[in-house]
UniProtKB/TrEMBL annotation:
This is Alpha/beta fold hydrolase. The keyword Hydrolase applies. One of its GO terms (biological process) is regulation of DNA-templated transcription. It comes from Nocardioides turkmenicus. Keywords: DNA-binding, Hydrolase, Transcription, Transcription regulation. It holds the Pfam family Abhydrolase_1. One of its GO terms (molecular function) is hydrolase activity. The keyword Flavoprotein does not apply. Residues 296-361 form the HTH luxR-type domain. InterPro entries: AB_hydrolase_1, AB_hydrolase_fold, Sig_transdc_resp-reg_C-effctor, Tscrpt_reg_LuxR_C, WH-like_DNA-bd_sf.
Amino acid sequence: MPTTLPSPPRRKNEPVTGEPEVRYAQTSDDIAIAYQVVGSGPVVIWMPSLSNIRAQWRVPALRMAYERLSQDLTLVLYDGRGTGSSDRRPGDLGLDAHLRDLEAVIEAVGADRVNLLGYYHAVATAVAYAATDPQRVDRMLLFGGAARMRDAMSPAQTQALLSLVEQDWDLFADAAATAWLGWGSGENAGRVAEAFRTATTPAVARDWFAEAARLDVSDLLGQVVAPTLVLHRQAAGQIPVEVSRRLAEGLRNGTLVELEGTTPTLFVEGGARDLAMVSRWFLTGEVCRDSASAPAPTALTALTTREQDVLRLIATGRTNASVARDLGITEHTVERHAANLYRKLGVRSRAEATAWAIRNGAD
């Protein structure tokens, strides 16, 4: 049975207030790893790529994702060595080091069994952990990575982005958030860029990406027994679907689902459907392939077509000026549509409208 950790009572659909406490786990090589625990239910470890968990809570779309997932799950977030609030003296950045980070967090949380959500760089680490300690992993969900990470990092667009790490760190952070990960403009994009910018130093990032390109767990795929859902949503110039397909086919119990759209991140394009799929997988092991399985509620149909357009763009963090440009209307008209949709949805601000859109599939 999956481990469920005790937590203070929280009513269904009650949002998380504030930011979870940052705690610290100590690795076997004496590195302090910052982690947070929120929610109740089966334990899901959201494994980090280049992370800063405290800054990520300030990204509206990510915060909504954390809050939604923690309604049904015990969500554990952590910063890998050298990043975020963890020890900034990373030392080794290879696979064994990342496994030590994960092991330290699992031990600190006190979970006998866990589910793993591996994102980009963390995909290889998740595979390696599930292969070497199969009795502790119930299910995995993998996104954006590969058994051989150089397969995911080799496309020209990705290499162009990585070339900015040492040339211009601020430009790298902005480009990673907006151009590569597809966060667009507005508050979400700005906050994601800030999370990248403050995650680590350019020198550590350079070494971190260099080590990532050497990760290869291809020979471990056949040893993974945990049911694994591999999700793919990428633009053509980023990670080819063949990379995700090889990953799923190499696993004993791997299933590939190609998500609609091209934004190479979860919970932005198709946010509510992504959240429904992730929650259902970790709770039941069922794969929800039908995008209609998470339909928008009736309240959305009360909005005019233009109000729905404005809501969708607001939910991506765009400013009124940006929405006006995208729709070919004036800012005053955007403000009028926004006021109308706030009234119809029973919300009072852009933040509440964004939360409503993410939770209810207005994408």
